[in-house]
Amino acid sequence: DLLTRHKVLVADFLEQNYDTIFEDYEKLLQSENYVTKRQSLKLLGELILDRHNFAIMTKYISKPENLKLMMNLLRDKSPNIQFEAFHVFK
């Protein structure tokens, strides 16, 4: 809730701490736990599609390893994971 309500503050924080945050966030996206993976994808989609986080979105999608991760998540056995990955990917 904090990450989606205080958008300007969160955008500044994410920009300043991008490498540290997304290095750890990748572990959540690759989790074996379904709920962890799905909720992490859903939050990532909400964050990068928000106009306040345009710089974060640009940085995230410019990295080939993130693109590869999303493409692999599009092939997940769960349709819900595929759906959430699609929203990040688009």
TrEMBL record:
Superkingdom per UniProt: Eukaryota
Gene Ontology biological process terms in this record: intracellular signal transduction
GO molecular function: protein serine/threonine kinase activator activity
Summary of subunit composition and partner proteins: Component of a trimeric complex composed of STK11/LKB1, STRAD (STRADA or STRADB) and CAB39/MO25 (CAB39/MO25alpha or CAB39L/MO25beta): the complex tethers STK11/LKB1 in the cytoplasm and stimulates its catalytic activity.
Role description: Component of a complex that binds and activates STK11/LKB1. In the complex, required to stabilize the interaction between CAB39/MO25 (CAB39/MO25alpha or CAB39L/MO25beta) and STK11/LKB1.
PANTHER family registered for this protein in UniProt: CALCIUM-BINDING PROTEIN 39-LIKE, CALCIUM-BINDING PROTEIN 39-RELATED
Family: Belongs to the Mo25 family.
Protein name per Swiss-Prot or TrEMBL: Uncharacterized protein
Annotated source species: Marmota monax (Woodchuck)
